[in-house]
Amino acid sequence: QVRLVESGGGLVQAGGSLRLSCGVSGTFFKQHVLAWHRQAPGKQREWVASITSSGGTSYVDSVKGRFTISRDNAKSTVYLQMNSLKPEDTAIYYCKDVWSGDWGQGTQVTVSS
């Protein structure tokens, strides 16, 4: 069974930075595409970024140039470095194993203006 555990969320002022981590167990991590999604209050969950097994990355337009997704295959961990945060980035951030379809429990990110 695949298990994903996010950490690193918190409260930050606009313009600040946070780094989210997602530890993955129960799967052959280095072969899988991993992704970050987020869900703001009253809105649908949206895709934020993905990283392939070879390290290729893609981002939603609203975070390009501010967020960076990366992975450490030795630690079975995927990261999301978030810089220049804006109040509209406030959401619960979820990690997803795209191959298995499993989700983490989410971590809250709140950006104050």
Describe the overall structure.
Strand 5 and strand 6 form a beta hairpin. The mean pLDDT is 96. Helix content is 0%, strand content 52%. The strands form 2 sheets. Strands 2, 4, 5, 6, 9, 10 and 11 form a 7-stranded mixed β-sheet that branches. A 4-stranded antiparallel β-sheet has the order 1-3-8-7, with no helix packed on it. The N and C termini lie far apart (40 Å). By secondary structure, it is mainly beta. It is globular, with a radius of gyration of 13 Å.
Q: In terms of topology, how is this protein built?
A:
Layout: E1 3-7, E2 10-13, E3 18-25, E4 34-39, E5 46-51, E6 57-59, E7 67-72, E8 77-82, E9 91-97, E10 102-103, E11 107-112
Parallel strand pairs: 2-11
Antiparallel strand pairs: 1-3, 3-8, 4-5, 4-9, 5-6, 7-8, 9-10, 9-11
Instruction: Describe the main β-sheet briefly.
Output: 7 strands, mixed
Strand content: over 45%
Structural category = mainly beta
- Mean pLDDT over all positions: 96
